[in-house]
User: Which sequence fits this backbone?
C-alpha cells in the first residue's frame, strides 16, 4: 500500500521524506490555509513537489466544470507530479473526465458512498478518496466503504486507485491495508504513531541496560 502524507507542512514533509517513508502527498484548501500565511499557494505547491518524488494532489477551488478544468490545467503546469483534485460533484466528475482525457491525473475527493465511488471510476479518475474518518464522525462505518469499493472495483475491473483519506488513527491505516486500499493518506501525527509500540520501547531499554553491563562500545 502506498503511503501519502496528508499535509502541506513542508517541515513535516521533509521529515517523512528524509526517512524514505512516503510515496506522495495530498493537500486540500484547509491544509493550505493552515500553513500559507501571506504566501502564494502556488509557491507552496511547487516547494512540496520539489521535495517529494511522487504524486502530489493539488485541489481546485472552482465549483463549475469549465473553471475547474481551467484551474486544473494551471495546477498541473506547476509540476509533472501534480495530481489535480476535484470534488465528487456532477461538475467535478465532468471536469475529471476532461482532465484525464488530456493526460492529467485526477484524484476525486470527498467520496462518502459506494455509488459516488462508482461514478468516480466511470469518470476515469486516477484516484478516488473515500473520507473514512468523517463517516465515523457521524456514526457511520468508514472502513466499510473501503471494503465495498475494493469489491466493486475488483468485480468490474476498474483501475481507479482507492486512496483511503480522512485517517484519524493507526487502526484506520491497518484496516486500509487489510481491506486492500491502494493508498492511504496519513496526517504526520498518525504516521509517527505507526512506529510506536510499548514492547519495542521496553525491549530496547532492556537491551541497552544489558549491553551497558559490558562497559564497552561498538
Ligand atoms: O485530504 C483530505 C482528507 O484526508 C481530510 O481529512 O481529517 O480533514 O477529515 P480530515
Assistant:
Amino acid at each position: 500500500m502506498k503511503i501519502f502524507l496528508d499535509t502541506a507542512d513542508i517541515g513535516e514533509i521533509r521529515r517523512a521524506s528524509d526517512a524514505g517513508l512516503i510515496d506522495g502527498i495530498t493537500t486540500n484548501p484547509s491544509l493550505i490555509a493552515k500553513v500559507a500565511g501571506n504566501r502564494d499557494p502556488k509557491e507552496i505547491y511547487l516547494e512540496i513537489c520539489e521535495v517529494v518524488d511522487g504524486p502530489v494532489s493539488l485541489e481546485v477551488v472552482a465549483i463549475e466544470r469549465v473553471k475547474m478544468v481551467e484551474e486544473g490545467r494551471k495546477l498541473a503546469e506547476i509540476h509533472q507530479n501534480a495530481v489535480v483534485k476535484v470534488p465528487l460533484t456532477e461538475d467535478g466528475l465532468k471536469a475529471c473526465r476532461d482532465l484525464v482525457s488530456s493526460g492529467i491525473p485526477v484524484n476525486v475527493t470527498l467520496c462518502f458512498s459506494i455509488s459516488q465511488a462508482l461514478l468516480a471510476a466511470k469518470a476515469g479518475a486516477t484516484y478516488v478518496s473515500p473520507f473514512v474518518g468523517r463517516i465515523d464522525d457521524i456514526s457511520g462505518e468508514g472502513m466499510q466503504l473501503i471494503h465495498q469499493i475494493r469489491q466493486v472495483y475488483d468485480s468490474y475491473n476498474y483501475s481507479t486507485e482507492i486512496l483511503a483519506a480522512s485517517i484519524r488513527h493507526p487502526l484506520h491505516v491497518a484496516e486500509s491495508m487489510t481491506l486492500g486500499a491502494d493508498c492511504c493518506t496519513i496526517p504526520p501525527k498518525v504516521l509517527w504513531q505507526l512506529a510506536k509500540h510499548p514492547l519495542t520501547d521496553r525491549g530496547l531499554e532492556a537491551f541497552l541496560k544489558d549491553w551497558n553491563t559490558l562497559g564497552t562500545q561498538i
User: Anything to note?
Assistant: The radius of gyration is 19 Å. Residues 6, 26, 28, 131, 133-134, 165-166, 185 surround SN-glycerol-3-phosphate (CB under 6 Å). The chain has a mean pLDDT of 98.
